[in-house]
Amino acid sequence: MPVARTHCVGLVGVTGRLVEVEADVGPGIAGTHFIGLLDTAISEARGRVRSALINSRFAWPDARVTVSLFPATLPKRGSIFDLAIAIAVLGAAGAVPAQRIAAPMFLGELGLDGRVRPIRGVLPAALAAAAAGVRTVVVPALNAAEAALVPDLTVVPVTTLGELVGWLRSGDLHRLPVVADAASLSQDAEHVGHAEHIQHSEDADHVEDGEHVRHGEHVRQAEHAPRPTGPDGCDRSIPGPDLCDVAGQPMGRKALEVCAAGGHNLWMLGPPGSGKTMLAERLPTLLPPLDQEKALEVSAIHSVAGTLPPGRPLLTRPPFMAPHHSATVAAVVGGGSGGVVRPGAVSLAHRGVLFLDEAPEFATTVLDSLRQPLESGTVTIARAVGAVTFPARFMLVLAANPCPCGLQGTVGHPCRCTPTGRRRYLDRLSGPLLDRVDVKVKIGRATRAELLADRHFVETSATVAERVRLARERAARRLAGTPWRTNAEVSSSALHRDFRLPDAAMAPLHRGLDVGTLSARGLDRVLRVSWTLADLAGKDRPGQTETSAALALWLGVD
């Protein structure tokens, strides 16, 4: 019998690589042989595929079956290849027409009873298929909505192997079931809860042709009707946190606005209960929605990690990650065992916010491992079988108490810590790490009078987010034609060449360099913050006022 060929995708990090699956049923001692640098999950596929075929009432070839996954040098992991292997074997055995399985791509895990089960990483796999010129992708029904996000791609959802074989034999599209998940993509995006701070303002239109789901023109902006407000002026029509919830911390709210406008990192130092966590949780509400390209990029990472919310395959809001202080380096940066490398919190927070509450409680190795991703925007995890690179362009927010007991500087509550204990506590945040933090603020406990007075000055997240949007648009116009979109991304060489400031504006920074309070890296970060302050103020370029304020924010001066 002739060799049957079909296609699948192997995932390396969040990048898909096209894999050709070949099956040959020929003479020889009956048995099944897999070749192509496979891991344990694929080696076990021979049992899953054989049982799925038999329980779907298809005969397993009583001959020598050889399955090859090309390229042989590419490591292949996971059960994503099950469906492609089964279809290739059926094609080689003559159970389905070999010409009909050559063009489509097949993704999915098989159950022993022939069900096609959902898998991780469908979105990056579908993106890789489209980039390789594939036009039809067969996926598990529960992953159809995810694959349908890719433009110019026909997605065929299947629930069982028998249904798929019936379609391949007859070509009748109506033999396949309609998937409700794909239909949900055409609905208006809804508000979600507190954990991810998602407020949808976009919807994706998808056209369904029978059981084939096609990607439509994305994205239209939802119109916002007038919303009711509470006595404090907060918008109460949207569930979840709002910046107007935080009273008594005007400096903290201003720091959040600056960081959101420029994409800067933030460190907050203050006693327990002063509002550090509340501020950090409200930072994503100030950030603009992700555009289509970034939304697909972020959703692909969460697809590989298996953290996409049910029924919502496209993440349109910046993610917010807050790992516990007991998290390991592998959990924060990424890693895994057995050759399987998963993205960590820094990659899951890509294009969003990574919040480390009680930062000094994290292991020193975890904190120091953040230094390289903060500079490069990527994280590379090396293993014996190769290296995997994940994107990690995030805003880092650190929160810390002034001492282990948290009472230092609190009126009426003397600190119980020794000077050595206080020094050791904050020394866990190394100088090189804090040198990469653009904005540092001290958050004190507000008195009753301060809380009542500040209630008249609090602003909603929507109000501040509008100023952030205008500042980012001003920065985007200035950075047009460059690879950067926010001030925090601008390179050092461009700061001192293309966006060089006059000597009068640089005077405060030159004094800081002369007395040693400002490092060369710190100078670049202060310059980036000064450009953000100018954008918020509607100025064409920073002056001495902006550079002085940016230096004070970098030093953490009240």
Features:
four-stranded mixed β-sheet, alpha/beta, 558 residues, 23 helices, 22 strands, elongated
Please outline the helices and strands.
Elements (H helix, E strand, L loop, with lengths): L3 E9 L2 E12 L4 E5 L4 H4 L1 H11 L8 E7 L11 H11 L5 H4 L3 E2 L2 E2 L5 E2 L4 H10 L4 E5 L3 H4 L6 E5 L2 H10 L9 H4 L18 E2 L2 E4 L2 E4 L4 E2 L28 H13 L3 E4 L6 H7 L9 H14 L14 E2 L7 H5 E2 L6 E2 L1 H4 L4 E4 L7 H5 L2 H6 L1 E6 L2 E6 L3 E6 L18 H9 L3 H4 L4 E4 L5 H7 L6 H18 L13 H6 L5 H13 L4 H18 L6 H12 L3
Parallel strand pairs: 3-4, 5-8, 8-9, 14-21, 14-22, 15-18, 18-21
Antiparallel strand pairs: 1-2, 2-4, 6-7, 10-13, 11-12, 16-17, 19-20
Helix pairs in contact: 2-3, 9-19, 9-22, 19-22, 21-23, 22-23
Explain this structure.
Helices cover 36% and strands 17% of the residues. By secondary structure, the protein is α/β, with parallel strands linked by helices. It starts with a strand and ends with a helix. Helix 6 (144-147) links the parallel strand 8 and strand 9 (154-158). The protein has 23 helices and 22 strands. The strands form 8 sheets. The chain has a 5-stranded parallel β-sheet with strand order 15-18-21-14-22. Strands 1-2-4-3 form a 4-stranded mixed β-sheet. A 3-stranded parallel β-sheet has the order 5-8-9, with helices on both faces. Helix 19 (461-478) packs across helix 22 (520-537) and helix 21 runs parallel beside helix 23 (544-555).
